[in-house]
Amino acid sequence: MSLSLKVSSIVPSYHLPLAYSTRNHTLLVLPNGLKCLLIHDPSSEMMCGAVTVNCGAFNDPPNVPGLAHLTEHLILRGSKTHKSGSLGRKLAECGGQLNAYTTSTQSCFYFQVSTFATNTVGDGSSIVESILPIFSSYLTCPLLSERYVSQEILAVDDEHNGNRNNQEKVLFHGYRLLANPKHVFSRFATGNFDTLSMISSKKIKSMAKSYFSNNFTPQNMSLVFKGPQTVLQLKKMVLSEFMSLGSSPKTLPHPNDGISTSEPTLHLEFPKDEIDLFITQGPNTIVLRTPFAPKIRICFPIYLMKQTENYNPTVRSLCNLLGEEGPESLSSLLSMEKGWISALFVFVQTLYSDVQMLVIDLEPTKSAWSHLKEIVHEIISYLKRNIGECKEETLNVLADYYSKLDEYNIISQPASVTLLDDVLDYAERLNRSFADAMQPNFISSFKSWSNIFAASQTIKNMINVCFTECLVKVIILAPPEVSVEQTIRIQEEYFGFEYELSRLDFDNSPQFDFSEKKLPSPRAEIVGNMISRLNNSTRISTSHMVRGFESELLNPHLMSYDQSHEIWKSTNPQTSYENSIVTVAIRFPHIRASATNSVILDLLVELAGNELRGPLYDFEKIGSFWGLFSNINRCSSIMVTTSGSQDAVESMLLQIFATLRETANRLHAYPYAHLKKARVNLRKRYEQNKDCSNITKVLSASYVLLEEGIITPREKMESLELVDEKCLKSFKNQFLNSQEYLSVVKTGELNTSCLTNLYIVGKNYGFGKELRDPSSVVLRDGSFYLFETETREDDNISVVMHYTQIGSRSDTSLFVLAKFYLYLVSTTAMDELRIQRQLSYSVYSGLRMFHRQFGIYILIPSAWHSCSHLTDQVEEFLQVVEEMVTSYSEEEFHEQLLLPFIQTLSGNSSECDAESGLFASLQPQKGSGDKPCGPEFCEHWNHLNQILNSTYKFESKNCEEPCDVNLIRGISRKEFLEFIGQHMLPKSLQRSVLVICSHPFNGIEFQRKQVVSRNLFQKMERLDINIDEDSILDALLKSDNAEAYGDAFRILSKRYPNQKIKLKRLQLEAQFGNLLLKVGVSLGKFSLMKNGRRCFMESRVPMVRCSDYHQIHRESSVTPTMLLTEKFEKLIRIEEYQENSIY
């Protein structure tokens, strides 16, 4: 009898969303204690796997923050049986991925790969069969080598530096600063260079091994596999490869017990029940002085009632009640009546395990800062009076309504955009509780009311317990100049920002009169439609992938067209997808796309969007989406996108276009308060775009430099200041007398009668031959530009985007060669640039798609290297790629390079790839939120891009160009090397390169000396050398010795003669020099190629530095563009093709 039959399993009866109805789930526990969930999912060929371990940052020793995170990095460097990086490279070669993350209480390791992928070396077996033994070995016998410690410390530090520029990471750190300092949650969790370099690599290695052996036992782990294989096949894989985990089982400690080990001693800490997370009478407010957009986050500790029977439906009801946007909502009260906020969002945030906060995020106006106490008090008063004193019958009806809404949204939700999302969520929750995994609601996470008639009392109880003045916590993001609370500013140790702690006192707060306030009422038509669809939900089905067969996706069908419009319909014969997606793009050909006109169109959309927030919110509650866009493709235009049920889409479209028409007609006579609010919001958005992080700034600069007609945020800000009533009136007259060109793309059904109302101006008389779309900038052959962006004061990393122009998007052969080259770059860049050259933890590469041109980019953010060094290293890497291709024979080239690339293209993955262009990354200016990113919407968006660009290549994906597999198979080694030699090699005289860089504000040398001063100060403390850190930094800044800063020691010895002997001893031990070596910063101007050859830069085209994008535009050309009359001629040919084809 096989082992798989001996291990008993459980087939749970899960309540599944309809999109998951084809999946089968099985639970089992292996003899070694490993908890497993196996999912047979025939809807995708991708296999995903995740192993979660019940340990994380809470296990860090107090003196080594980040040890758990560092150990996670070391585990992925290889095992005793498989060399470093072998699994990552193998997965990258076939388009898969490998990664891990560490939270407060868990560490998760995961992979994803196509089951169509095969091994190119050997017998051609499935790649899955070869990766599982390696993945298992990483978790069984990791190498944890000392020689990788310093490299991965830099990787952890790079990751932390990225977190410093992440608004959500900074806000989350605000919780830690507010927390009880005796609670383990209050400690820094990620780790950085300072925290992980205070002890030797040898000790770090020893601690990592102790951490691993104490926690990575099968009883402490969970595994989730999901793939198209049968459950029996998945079960055999698990038994074959994961039975060896914990061959010497250990007795696990109780989570609240410390664990003592031999050298070094680890004190693994978990939150003890008797230690409160927050001190009740302690600070309740923290102001974080950051450059991010201002935000007020008000948090309530709902975890205090976690054990309540109806905890989940109670929390959902409160989120719905507080998040309403109708005229009687909290949002309307704070924004329209008080004018304190511009937007409100409500959600539940998990701090760790099952400790949750209900969060109300506010986007404040300027007046909010002087009314902070009133805002918090008004929210609590609204809860206690409007909800807490509501009639029980009324509140029960609302709770039942929201429960039905949530149930409907759960049942009708599409499959996760990223297949890994499900797997990681299940693995975390399975690790916390195997018993919960056997509950019917494990997949959906939806729990209904056990007794709807008790809902009112339960909601009121939670308000009374959790939503009080003494328990509220307030986290504020504010610029340095805003005055909030008059308290002492403190320099944060790890993130670098200043912050202020205070306690809001509500004793003398004013009492607000809510007697006239009511709670929102359910809309009868929404409720009736929702219940009807729930009762007939079996009519909804999901796409079903049959292994080995391509999905027959039909190209959009041209339904109607003339010189004023084109209407397209897209369908998928494999799916009876109930929802509709409709986009209407309206172009105003006779309105010049100037900065002023662009701003006024933004203003029109802003005003209309504000008017639509309330009326469309009920549609949002049932999962519908709406979004307004302006100035698409650098043209004077407005675009509307909606998705949802057919009824919802039609209702939303009619409401949106009626509002747009009304707004346009009274644009110059709009109420002052509404106009002022819209202008303030626009200016805030422009400022955020102008002052974005250096990574975003570099990416945005590529569009300004390489697209024609891009208007910068600075130019928009200047134009906004000049827009007055006269400008608005002039624009309105021009606008209402202009003509419209409509492009309508619908996926699913839409009544024809609805289309007649999709207009703003209503004049469609055709257009002139002289009109054209904006186009792309073409760099001249042999050019090499270095463009330097403006640097923000808090920018602490170097960012380099190395872009190589390839050619026209219409050149199919060139696009295929570039796509193949990008595959080689992406499969080797991580190993070569991150691991071997230690440039950065994050290395990004991809295609950059512009309106008519495209190219290949490599982007590297680094806290340790200058922009010039990063640029040199990328240039050298491009040479290495050419050498690698040259080393293959023709047969090896096809079998080991070309075939794996083809396999990455031939799968049926439903996932959306990374965004590669401006249109792909476009988000609505106003709407219900970010645009959806499911496969149906991605396909719709790709078709829309082709239609608006007049290219009509519908076989393409992700707003790129189609990749002809037959053309790829014909690529020879010689042809590919010619492509590399012409377009990619530094010595090529035909290559065109643009390097966009953002320097650290204080310069990389200053940052390095800051790091060294901190580490040297810590070492001096241990050696009893009494010199403060500021004096050390000052001596370093005055030192000219780049190797070991010997001048700094001489300066310090003169200042502190009584410390001279100890300082000399420290210098002689070369501790300082070793620190610099660990940092790994290149000080030289040139990089050397392998085998001691002279640097390639001697033969490289000279680099031209510039900071004015107009200079590049003047020295470049613009691609030919398509007149709108040519577009009409294309539509005629498409119609003829459709009539003569079986479509």
From TrEMBL:
Pfam families xref list: Peptidase_M16 (PF00675), Peptidase_M16_C (PF05193), PqqF-like_C_4 (PF22456)
Q: Does the keyword Transferase apply?
A: no
Which intervals hold domain Coenzyme PQQ synthesis protein F-like C-terminal lobe? 825-896
Record-level GO BP terms: peptide catabolic process; proteolysis involved in protein catabolic process
In Gene Ontology terms, what is one molecular function of this protein?
metal ion binding
Q: Where is the Peptidase M16 C-terminal domain?
A: 209-385
Which keywords accompany this UniProt record? Hydrolase, Metal-binding, Metalloprotease, Protease, Zinc
Q: Name one GO cellular component term.
A: mitochondrion
Report domain Peptidase M16 N-terminal positions.
37-172
Q: Which family does it belong to?
A: Belongs to the peptidase M16 family.
Protein name per Swiss-Prot or TrEMBL? CIC11C00000003469
